[in-house]
Design brief:
Layout lengths: L14 E6 L2 E6 L6 E14 L2 E20 L2 E14 L7 E12 L5 E3 L8 E2 L14 E10 L2 H4 L5 E17 L2 E14 L10 E15 L4 E15 L4 E14 L5 H15 L4 E6 L2 E7 L12 H14 L7 E6 L6 H21 L8 E5 L12 H7 L1 E7 L2
């Protein structure tokens, strides 16, 4: 069923905030080459036909680069990844999917984007008026949510849900020990759309979102937001699906990674610490440390005791790059079934990630786990040596 992949007020640009005679002027400011990322965590309860179905914790990671300017509109290229943690288990966040998007945004927050893009979900929020705004003052502007219902309902095109957003400038409030200008964003949805092609489709959509946005005038961008939400879909097959929960997000500026220098540091540390069957390489996403032939109990994801010493050493290296999120990927040799290989690779990657988290290398929200099965071999699976190399875990320091 549908799940809220990206509950995110989409502050994907640098923005300025300047005082004027007791008022605030909000306006986006873009600079080519700016890079930053948004990390949001959603705690969500799902109800089917008004009965509780399950609870999930969803991690959304958005990396953004401003790639060009045309007058007051900036071109943004962004990558969105989503991962999920089932609360009933003590698991890491498992990779669910990835989207790319390209769009323009003007200084007031209006987005120009092709209909083929699924992300960002929330669009034209926030939008600012071309005037000073005093504490307590309100404004409204149209917005929309764009959803991916391909897996849930078989709807093959991005699905648009319009709304009217209401804003209020609330003045100064504290977040994480610092005071920020804050405004609220609220919208309500009552929408009875036309039928579309698919296995089933929404006949009626009801929703509510209430958000607080913390603005950083020194950095010239949103620092964070938190949100409560509720969405109800009454479907053409008679089923009702409801999502309710809370989301919070934090925005980080990203320094350009000096990949060659960092890779050399890591390679030197691997040699100094005497870590066997480990190598480092530069990839598009950042820098990958490959741990070949990492040992688990047979056909399981339980690490052998001797491997923990190796991971302790790797953890010390990773701590030198504490500002970078990490992706832990599991790989298998070509043996067994495709489904079995995928599950084993995912579980083994999660085992390594859990151990690194337990040693304080990263918090859970800065680690994503993904299983690849035997899809990305680095050697010939027809030889024992090749299979040994393919049974590996790779840890990638992510650039953005």
């Amino acid at each position: 069923m549908y799940k809220s992949l990206y509950r995110s007020v989409f502050f994907l640009v640098l923005a300025g905030l300047c005082a004027a005679a007791g008022a605030e002027t909000f306006a986006y400011k873009h600079a080519e080459g700016n890079k930053y990322r948004i990390l949001s965590v959603v705690n969500e309860d799902v109800y089917v036909d008004r009965r509780f179905s399950h609870r999930a914790r969803i991690l959304n990671r958005v990396s953004v680069e401003v790639t060009g300017m045309e007058e007051d509109t900036a071109r943004h290229n962004a990558t969105f990844t989503t991962s999920e943690q089932i609360l009933e288990g003590d698991s890491t966040f498992q990779w669910n999917g990835e989207y790319s998007s390209s769009f323009g945004m003007d200084k007031f927050g209006h987005i120009t984007i092709e209909n083929r893009y699924y992300m960002p979900v929330v669009r034209n929020v926030p939008v600012f008026p071309d005037r000073d705004i005093r504490e307590g003052e309100t404004w409204t502007a149209p917005g929309a949510e764009m959803h991916d219902f391909r897996k849930s309902f078989g709807i093959e095109q991005p699905y648009l849900i319009p709304f009217e957003a209401h804003y209020t400038f609330l003045g100064a409030r504290e977040w994480k020990g610092k005071t920020y200008p804050v405004f609220s964003v609220s919208y309500r949805i009552f929408y009875e759309p036309s039928a579309v092609s698919g296995r089933t489709w929404p006949r009626r959509i009801l929703g509510a979102s209430d958000q607080l946005v913390y603005w950083d005038p020194e950095l010239g961008q949103a620092a964070a937001y938190d949100e409560s939400f509720r969405m109800i879909f009454e479907l053409s097959n008679g089923m009702t699906v409801e999502y309710r929960g809370r989301a919070e997000a934090e925005i980080f500026e990203s320094e350009i990674m000096k990949k060659e220098d960092a890779a050399q540091i890591i390679a030197d540390e691997i040699a100094r610490l005497g870590i066997d069957d480990a190598s480092v390489r530069i990839v598009d996403e950042g820098i990958t440390i490959a741990l070949e032939n990492i040992q688990f109990q047979p056909d399981s994801a339980v690490l052998l005791a001797g491997e923990k010493e190796k991971l302790d050493k790797i953890g010390e290296i990773l701590k030198q790059f504490a500002d970078r999120d990490i992706l832990v990927g599991g790989h298998t040799a070509l043996a067994g079934t495709a489904a079995g290989r995928m599950k084993l690779s995912r579980d083994r990657a999660a085992s390594v990630a859990d151990y690194l988290i337990s040693r304080g290398v990263r918090e859970k929200t800065h680690v994503v786990v993904r299983g690849y099965g035997a899809e990305k071999p680095v050697a010939d699976n027809r030889t024992p040596e090749g299979m040994r190399k393919n049974r590996r875990v790779e840890i990638t320091l992510l650039e953005n």
